[in-house]
Amino acid sequence: MTKNINKHPIDFIFHPQSIAVVGVSSSEPDGGNFMRALQNAGYHKKHKLYPINPKINKIGDLKCYPTILDCPNDIDYVISRIPAPFVPELLDQCIKKKVKTLHLFTAGFNETGNKEREELGIEIIKKAHKAGIRVIGPNCMGIYVPDEQISFTEEAPPEDSGNVFVASQSGVLAAEFIFRLASRGIRFSKVVSFGNAADLGVHDFLDYAANDEQTKYVITYIEGISNGKKFLSSLKKCALKKPTIVLKGGVTDSGARAASSHTGSLAGSAEIFTAICNQYGAITVESIEEAQDVLVTLQSSLSHINDSNIISISSGGGNSVLSSDIMDKYGMRLSAIDKLVKIQLRKFIPLAGTSIDNPIDFGVGMDQVDILRKLFVTLSKNKNVSSIFYSYGLMPWMKPNNSKASSLNSNKNNNIIKKLVTHKKIHTHSAEGLIIELSKIQKKIKVPIVIIHRSRISGSLDDINQIATLCLKHNVAFFDSITRASKIIKKITRWNKDRI
Fold first, then answer.
1. Per-residue pLDDT tens over the stretch 304-341
2. Sites in the chain below the pLDDT cut of 70
3. Could you tell me the pTM of the whole model?
4. Phi, psi of 181 (to 5 degrees)
5. Ordered structural domains, the chain, with CATH
6. Residue pLDDT, tens place only, 222-236
7. Please, which residues have CB within 8 angstroms of residue 99's CB and are 6 or more apart in sequence?
8. What phi and psi, each to the nearest 5 degrees, are found at residue 316?
9. Which residues contact 334 (CB under 8 A, 6 or more apart)?
10. Which of 432, 500, 441, 499 is nearest to 471 (CA)?
């Protein structure tokens, strides 16, 4: 077979045509977590899937084999669910079977602090290297590749792919990235949970993402870095080509201790790490929510914003006062409203119970398109305005008896989660029609419109995610609060200025 010189050296990891799960559960009819995840994703329909356990004969409709050596065909990718002491024997079988990738879900190596286990892990990697086998892990969830119908999470992740690549040292956080971001309309090219990074580390995946044509945005969560020189080189390369978002764990003493017990990683100075990342052009964040907000901003009309002159529209004096405090705290500048603009505003904003100073105190609902159009067009004529914040009122289709208090984390039913990430359309005509109008207005005035969700507003999580997803689709920025909007816009403004 002719080698494709255009392929990245680790591209094969994300495109296995056959997977064996070693150590499938004999007590669960469906074979346990990875078998459930892969079959739910439909991997077995177009690829070869081999459950391995000498104690059982079948998992559902699939034949179960005693070892990978008993499988009838080649195996590209092996998932190990067996205890650490049995991994050397499995590796010997992988070498004989000419396996390309060994994914060690198996834990119990260097993160234990046990010298013998640490040495065992080192010997496994040495032997794998010699045989040309790449290792993901230990202590990780592996890969999610929508285009190959590969998933490591049993809940139903999006089947359609996108342009966001995630490399996470934590498996749980990798899953959280998938579901939290997917519920807002974001989709993924690939996601990899790489755990202890005994072989493949963050630098390998950043280098890969930099060259992956399907990937436009990159997120990485890391706890520790084993090779600083390679990390900085790959980070610089990736950040020069694509927006690269870095979430670092273990930045406090408590976090560092937790990181050490989790993946055996040693953490360094948070300030130095952040400064280096920013110097190399990466965007550092402190949470998954911030990573989500950065992605939303970069995929909206705010992507090129380079100053913080804001006009804010809201309703209620108290909310306007608090919003002003928050915006000021995070470096937003509330532009003075020009005299001529005020004269135009008073032609359609009543005098009683309103204010046309910035912030604008005027209760106008998102369904009042004609008034909104007048408002945005008029404010866009102000001398200093780089974006307009708009805190919307009650949507006409929202049901007052629903509450945003129901959260993604509280949903125990996988069908509800699937509904959130696949976005079954809710009142699509009215919702999308309004967002399309805002998008048209935004394009006409050449000033980004920023939609701010106010937490007191009634409406289910489905409604809010629907609005957020439609905003993303139509290039309009959407945030859950003034605080989140202000923090991220300041961050992106600084990032854009540094790139000039």
1. 999 999 999 987 667 677 888 899 999 999 999 999 99
2. 1-5, 250-269, 316-317, 319, 393-429, 455-461, 500
3. 0.88
4. -75, -35
5. 11-136 (3.40.50.720), 142-298 (3.40.50.261), 309-499 (3.40.50.261)
6. 988 888 899 999 999
7. 68, 75, 76, 77, 78, 133
8. 100, 120
9. 310, 311, 312, 324, 327, 328, 358, 359
10. 432
